TrEMBL record:
The keyword NAD applies. Its EC number is 1.1.1.22. Belongs to the UDP-glucose/GDP-mannose dehydrogenase family. This is UDP-glucose 6-dehydrogenase. Gene3D superfamilies: Cytochrome c1, transmembrane anchor, C-terminal, NAD(P)-binding Rossmann-like Domain. One of its GO terms (biological process) is UDP-glucuronate biosynthetic process. GO terms for molecular function: NAD binding; UDP-glucose 6-dehydrogenase activity. Pathway: Nucleotide-sugar biosynthesis; UDP-alpha-D-glucuronate biosynthesis; UDP-alpha-D-glucuronate from UDP-alpha-D-glucose: step 1/1. Substrate binds at residues 152-155, 204, 249-253, 257, 320. It is an enzyme of class 1 (oxidoreductase). Keywords: NAD, Oxidoreductase. Residues 313-415 form the UDP-glucose/GDP-mannose dehydrogenase C-terminal domain. It comes from Bacillus canaveralius. It catalyses: UDP-alpha-D-glucose + 2 NAD(+) + H2O = UDP-alpha-D-glucuronate + 2 NADH + 3 H(+).
Length: 443
């Protein structure tokens, strides 16, 4: 099969590289020349565990190529995966401009009958629009089928998710088109769900909305736990044991970020609103998430009073571990709030500093050394549960900080461990730990 991937963002690149690894001939096209040059040289523009190795291997054996030339990308294509971005508009709706441009370009350059497969997350009905655009432009003698095939790749474990996903959703009313896609994915042995186009589009939004709901739900329970003196770790474990609920996505913290949940939840509220169904539950999920992100600064002020002129270290810039992505990362909002309060911020992150710098510039200091970030700080706010943070010896807070105050937005440490040190420790949904002795003295 000759496969073309339109859009070499996160989803397009992982999909293209993994499909080449399955043995297909894959051409990836993007308009960004710099990115394509980098990929042609075997370097990945994003950090994703295992991606660069697969990229190099498949470039090396000639199964994978990158181009900015639509003629080269589409002339031999049997299948085109659309994986361009659908960024959020100011009103929360998905911006479909890149999708429309991709559809037009495909229609202009194809020379075979093809299947167009939409990976991008698009509102219900968009695949019908893609079909209309292509039909209105393509040569009349060519057949084009449009299929919805949403992605469920998590950043940081996207390669694993591609090869060992829970399901593959194929949305089409044409069994022949579904059969071709089934054939492509056959080696993966992942369960395939075949639906109509609109249901496939909805499965993607509903999945992300449900996962976001689980997160906001556990964060609400965490807030109540704090007030009644319960411990969210024990509560989450207890409810997760019920197989109908499950343990996943019950990690309380400062909420969800990233390129999908914030955007997709808002888009689904809009999609529902457009059909006169106010999605109140999902609106609350979003509100709870916004509240969670502000918790660390609220807590810092409760402990330190004014933050003006005080040094605060921020541990973690990426929206989650094992990625350099800072899109909708809690860290960005927290930095903004800290700076508004007059704090002086030093941020630690092992790999996301360049991306964070593009947004935050020189407004804060950056370091890849966790100890360096803590020097003379009056509070440390944990925003990402990096292994480097989880496995940092707790002594470093006592040794390097002015006063060891940890506001842990990701519940990285066990309360029993923290209790052994002279640390003030505030986490999410768990009792606060206050030191039994102070840094320079016993009680
Ligand atoms: C998500 C979906 O999981 C994936 O299927 C989809 O296709 C793309 O969006 P991703 O954004 O990469 O993937 O990360 P994910 O692991 O889902 O986490 C999203 C956010 O939720 C992160 O900010 C994470 O910290 C937060 N989260 C996750 C919690 O706060 N608690 C949890 O229990 C789980």
């Amino acid at each position: 099969m000759n496969i073309t991937i339109a859009g070499v963002g996160y989803v397009g690149l992982v999909t293209g590289v993994c499909l080449a690894e399955l043995g297909h001939q894959v051409t990836c096209i993007d308009i960004e020349e710099e990115k394509i040059a980098m990929l042609q040289a075997g370097r990945s523009p994003i950090y994703e565990p295992g991606l660069e190795t697969l990229l190099e291997q498949n470039l090396g054996c000639g199964r994978l190529q990158f181009t900015t030339d639509p003629h080269c990308a589409y002339k031999k294509a049997d299948i085109v995966f659309i994986a361009v971005g659908t960024p959020e508009r100011p009103d929360g709706t998905a911006n479909l401009e890149y999708i429309q441009v991709a559809a037009k370009t495909i229609a202009q350059y194809i020379t075979n009958d093809i299947i167009v497969c939409t990976k991008s997350t698009v509102p219900v009905g968009t695949n019908d629009q893609i079909k209309q655009i292509i039909e209105s432009i393509k040569p009349p003698y060519l057949q084009v089928e449009v299929v919805s095939n949403p992605e469920f790749l998590r950043e940081g474990s996207a390669i694993l998710d591609f090869f060992h996903g829970d399901r593959i959703v194929i949305g089409t009313d044409r069994p022949e088109a579904a059969a071709v896609l089934e054939q492509i994915y056959l080696p993966l042995k992942t369960p395939i769900i075949k639906t109509d186009v609109k249901s496939a589009e909805m499965i993607k939004y509903a999945s992300n909305a449900f996962l976001a709901t689980k997160i906001s739900f556990i964060n609400e329970i965490a807030a109540i736990c704090e007030k009644v003196g319960a411990n969210i770790d024990e509560v989450a474990y207890g409810i997760g044991k019920d197989q109908r609920i499950g343990h996943n996505f019950l990690q309380a913290g400062i909420g969800y970020g990233g390129s999908c949940f914030p955007k997709d939840t808002k888009a689904l509220v809009q999609i529902a609103g457009n059909v006169q169904h106010p999605f109140e539950l999902l609106k609350s999920v979003i509100e709870v998430n916004n509240r969670q992100i502000s918790l660390p600064v609220v807590r810092a002020k409760e402990i330190l009073g004014s933050l003006k002129g005080k040094k605060v270290s921020l541990l973690g810039l990426a929206f989650k571990p094992d990625t350099d992505d800072v899109r909708e990362a809690a860290s960005l909002t927290i930095v903004k709030e800290l700076l508004e309060e007059g704090a002086i911020v030093t941020a630690f992150d092992p790999i996301a500093i360049p991306n964070a710098q593009e947004v935050l510039g020189n407004s804060i200091e950056y370091t890849t050394d966790i100890r360096q970030a803590l020097v003379d700080a009056e509070a440390a706010i944990i925003t990402t549960e990096w292994e480097q943070i989880k496995h940092a010896p707790l002594e470093i807070y006592e040794s390097y900080m002015k006063e060891p105050v940890i506001i842990d937005g990701r519940n990285c440490y066990s309360l029993k461990e923290v209790e052994k040190y002279p640390i003030t420790y505030i986490s999410v949904g768990r009792p606060a730990v206050t030191p039994k002795y102070t840094k320079n003295n016993s009680i």
